[in-house]
Amino acid sequence: MEPETRYARSGDVHIAYQVVGDGPFDLVFVPGYVTHLELAWKLPTFGPALVGTASFSRMIKFDKRGTGMSDPVSGAPTLETRMDDVRAVMDAVGSRRAALFGLSEGASMSVLFAATYPERTAALVLRSAFARTLWAPDYPWGRTEDEYEREIERELRLYGPRKQALEAAGALGRFDDDEREAFLDYLRYSASPGMLEALLRMNKDIDVRHVLPAVRVPTLVLHGADDEIVSSEAARYLAECIPGARFIEHPGVGHLALGEAADRVIGEMDRFLTDVWESGSWDEAEPDRMLATVLFTDIVGSTKKALELGDRAWRQLLERHHALIRRELLRFRGREIDTAGDGFLATFDGPARAIRCAYAIVDAVGALGIDVRAGLHTGECEIADGKVAGIAVHTGARVAAAAGPGEVVVSSTVKDLVAGSGIEFVDRGPHELKGIPGEWRLFAVQGQPV
Questions:
Q1: What is the CA radius of gyration of the chain?
Q2: Pairing mode, if any, of strands 121-127 and 98-103?
């Protein structure tokens, strides 16, 4: 019997989800590409694999927004938005802490989720995973821009004439003729042409390399030696950059694991997660480190302004300044960490929200007749007594110091993590940040973030 499809509210969007199995621990299946909750059970090779995964866990699976049975949306959801959707589904089913099984670009989002919410992530299983999509001088396993554009063109043939569409579907997995027909219908019901193209273009900009060292939960990286889309080198690189991660490569397995190959993958996942569960580490104490976006703001020329106004007027101006900033922090889910004179330090669980908050602060405070500079950086922070510390915090402060009056400046890490958000940047080139090793590329936010 197929499980019941239910809906969780994430903002103003309904996310379709199912809960299957009654195992001792929760496993959230974070999909890649496009999916359809109910049709997946009807595919001869997908259905048994889902049953196998639910045999040792309480499996929680969902269609990401814009796909399958979830609400249609305009444009592709960013990794940050998809993290919100996972939390919404976990909350809806009463899952306090779960393992995440991330497939393809779902693995990239799972990495980001585990680093950002270690208190809700017990373990990670990553399959057909990659840290970055496109080629770069320090990442030779990605596709070039031209190669990726050709891939998009090929995959959009899924919506063309039936014969052409079947060839495109066959390139995505090793199906026999009968199941290829069913798989094509599954994909066509899972997303519209526009949504698939939007997702593919958003995925092009994925780069979570800077996040990998911040993953502090047990991690298993599974890869098919015959994967036609993600190279073994890319998957191995990802595993090597996550502290303590295990890497297992399966001969004769492609990007999708079907039939007997799926049984091998599920068996490895079962053994790994059961070991984590039985070790007693599933319900560890509150984490002392997590990934966060830090925001620093301060008033430009504050000393001169204070002398012009006098003590009483300056104090009143600061009170209005503080009230405006706290209003925007509340609006964008920021957490005030410290206030020193005319400067604020706040943290966010999503870089796009942090950028929008910084811009709103700069805009609102401008009405008081003063200019604020703002800087943001995303990195692993140490947490103690409600405070944050570490290199990421110092880096955020140095990024803010490089901003001019009325500017929001971010590190390249922040820019990479807001792929698909519609936020535009101006490249400010390489900078040396005082006391921070290496050379840092900084970017100024251009125009109002959408």
A1: 23
A2: parallel
pLDDT at 317: 94
CATH H-level, domain 6-278: superfamily: Alpha/Beta hydrolase fold, catalytic domain (3.40.50.1820)
Which 3 state secondary structure label does DSSP give 183?
helix
Phi–psi pair at 187, nearest 5 degrees? -65, -40
The pLDDT of residue 171 is: 82
Give CA separation, 337 vs 33, 344, 345, 361, 393, in Å.
38, 8, 6, 16, 11
Q: CATH 3.30.70.1230 spans which residues of the chain?
A: 289-446
- Going by C-alpha positions, the residue among 340, 337, 335, 349 that lies closest to residue 385 is 337
Do residues 17 and 62 lie in contact, with contact meaning Cβ atoms separated by under 8 Å? Answer: yes
Q: Which fold has domain 289-446?
A: Alpha-Beta Plaits (3.30.70)
> What's the confidence (pLDDT) of residue 401?
94
* Integer Cα distance of 390 and 382 in angstroms: 6
pLDDT in tens, 351-388: 999 999 999 999 999 999 999 999 999 999 998 887 89
pTM: 0.93
Question: Which residue, among 298, 89, 78, has the nearest Cα to 204 in the 3D structure?
Answer: 78
Distance CA 424, CA 294 (A): 19
User: What residue type is 111 in one-letter code?
Assistant: V
The helix/strand count (H/E) of the chain reads as 15, 16
pLDDT at 45: 82
Residues 6+ apart with CB under 8 A from 35: 63, 64, 67, 68, 190
**Confidence band (pLDDT; 50, 70, 90) for 280?**
confident
Structure tokens of 395? 């880096």
Res. 186 pLDDT band, cuts 50 70 90 = very high
pLDDT tens by residue, 102-134: 999 999 999 999 999 999 999 999 999 999 999
Mean pLDDT taken over the chain = 93
DSSP 248-295: EEETT--SS--THHHHHHHHHHHHHHHHHHHTT-TTPPPPSEEEEEEE
Maximum Cα–Cα distance across the chain: 81
CB hemisphere CA count around 52 (13 angstroms):
20
Tokens of 356: 């929008």
